[in-house]
Design a protein that fits this description.
It contains two helices and five strands. By secondary structure, the protein is mainly beta. Strand 2 and strand 3 form a beta hairpin. The radius of gyration is 34 Å and the shape is rod-shaped. 11% of the residues are buried.
């Protein structure tokens, strides 16, 4: 068995002594580097029980110590169901905004008061 990109593997102590505690591993790349017969360098992600990547690793393992795991058992569906209102097919009325009022219009200020405020002098 030669691991391929996307494969989820169970890596145990049989693959290498460092894996006394088995891990789940999603393969990114299987290197074709020359190694001992039956051994391989793999790049990938260590997965937690929920199938989420928790660490990126490069591992040197024996091929006969790797077990392929079904993706359905390790990677839960990430799709969420979101309730959305139905989309209306009829056109919606266009609402217009009222035009802005000119400066000083209907503000209650007198022209003299506005000039006094603008010049920094008091109208009193």
């Amino acid at each position: 068995m030669s691991p391929r990109s996307g494969d989820v593997l169970r890596v145990t102590r049989t693959a290498s002594a460092q894996f006394a505690e088995p891990i789940l591993f999603r393969v990114i790349r299987a290197h074709d580097w020359p190694t001992y017969r039956g051994w391989i360098w793999l790049d990938g992600y260590q997965l937690n029980a929920a199938g989420d990547a928790v660490d990126r690793r490069s591992i040197f393992v024996r091929l006969d110590g790797l077990g392929k795991v079904s993706n359905a058992t390790t990677v839960p569906s990430r799709g969420r169901t979101v309730a959305r209102p139905p989309v209306s097919t009829r056109p919606q009325p266009v609402t217009t905004r009222p035009s802005p009022r000119p400066i000083g219009a209907t503000t209650g200020r007198t022209t003299a008061g506005a000039a006094a405020v603008g010049s920094g002098r008091s109208g009193i």
